Structures are given as C-alpha cells and as structure tokens.
Amino acid sequence: MELREMYEPSLMMGEDFPINDKIMVRMPTVGEIIRFGEKKYFSLVYLFCSTSSDYKVQLDSIGVDWQDLSDFDMFRQLFIGNKDQDMSILLGDLDTKNFVMAKDNKTEEIVLVNKKTGVVIDRLAYDLMSEYLCAANGVEKHSERAANTRQALIEEAKDKMELQKNKPYESHLAELVLSMACVQGFKADYFQAMKYPVSVFMNHVRKVQQIKNYDNTMHGVYAGTVEFGKIPKSQLDWTSKAK
After folding, report:
1. Where does 57-125 show beta strands of DSSP type E?
2. What is the pLDDT of residues 146-200, one digit of tens each?
3. What's this model's pTM, rounded to 2 decimal places?
4. Half-sphere exposure of 214 toward its Cβ, with a 13 Å CA cutoff?
5. Which residues in 18-55 are b (16+ Cβ under 10 Å) and which e?
C-alpha cells in the first residue's frame, strides 16, 4: 500500500490523521491557522516538508554536501532545533520538548525519541507526517541532484537568499479566503470558509482554478482563438483530480 492510500480518506474529509497509536497529526481549520499566525504555522509545516536541497547554502557553509543527507536526516536536525516551539496546532498535546536523537537498535538508524514518553519518530512516521502535511497544505517538496552543476546551484541559492533576506513576510491565506468567497461557484462566504479544514479549503481552491481554466479554454474554442485538437485531454475534463 502506498503512503497516500493510508491518509487519503483523512485528507479528503479534512480529519486528523493517526500516524500510529502515539502520534496524531491535526488538521486545523483556516481560521485556526490565521489566529495562530500564518507565518508561524507555515514555518512549522516546513519543518516536515523541507528537504536538504532547501538548505544547500547553509549545509555548504559547514562543509556538508546536501546530496549526502536524506530528507529524514534534515528533518531530525530541524525538529531538534525547533522542539521548544508550540507545535500543538499540528501535533496536539504531543510533548515535543523532550525529543532527542537516539539509535534504533533494530534498524541501526538514528531516530527521534521522547525520553519521557517513549514516543518514537522513525523514518516511516516521518514519511507519513511529511506527505500528509505537504498534501494538506499544498506544499511541493523541492529536491535537486547535481554533479558538475553543484556549485552553480549553490551560488544560485545564495542569490535567492540575498534577494529574500529583507523582504517582509506577506500573508496570503486570508486574502485567498476573501478571493474564494467572492468567486462564483464557491458555496461559502468569508466566515463559513474560515471553518473549512485547510485540506478541504485548498482542494476547493485547486478545483475552482481548474474549472476556470476549462471555461477560459472553451471560450477560446468558441471564439476561434484556440484550436480544439491541440488541447490536452486532461484540460477538457474539469471533473478530474485538480493538481
């Protein structure tokens, strides 16, 4: 069974997802996220959704090639560095402050263990948490491999970091809710949309975009500005899974 098959029902229903009998990943509503703080919320999400590629500059500065670290390796470091933050919006009452790195005697792999409760975040638990949070929040993981272009990719990432360094954070979620509430076809007003689980809301956003793209394409066909035979079949089926 693929991981997505395990969490797809919870994702579609906007429900909390049990990783195992000790760990539950919460599905917050849009309103909860805005009250918690959008910037703070997504910084927590990216603890689980970041890859070593996202930290190639920082890793290079300490002499580590990002390609030598797995996503789980990167996650362990990020989690331990941020374990004192309030993660309740994602992990409920899970005690995150007492996690440490330790070797799993069965697999010989370094995992995260809560020294008080015995809760373990191993690679499988991480993979489930990461995939679920990425899917729920519309986040795509960014992974790059390089051989001869390694240094060029690092320099490019440095340039991007420099450009972003002094840019203030821009909140998008509240504006997205407002935009959706004003779109014909979306059945909720602004305050009703705030009660949507974030995965359900993001699915609505993608579906509305898909239907609008279909409508615009068909308007082009009827106007004679778009050649019907050159339209991908997937673009003609607005009932297909929105991406």
Report:
1. 99-103, 110-114, 120-121
2. 766 777 888 877 777 777 777 777 778 999 999 999 988 888 999 999 999 999 9
3. 0.85
4. 15
5. ebeeebbbbbbbbbbbbebebeebbebbebbbbbbbbb
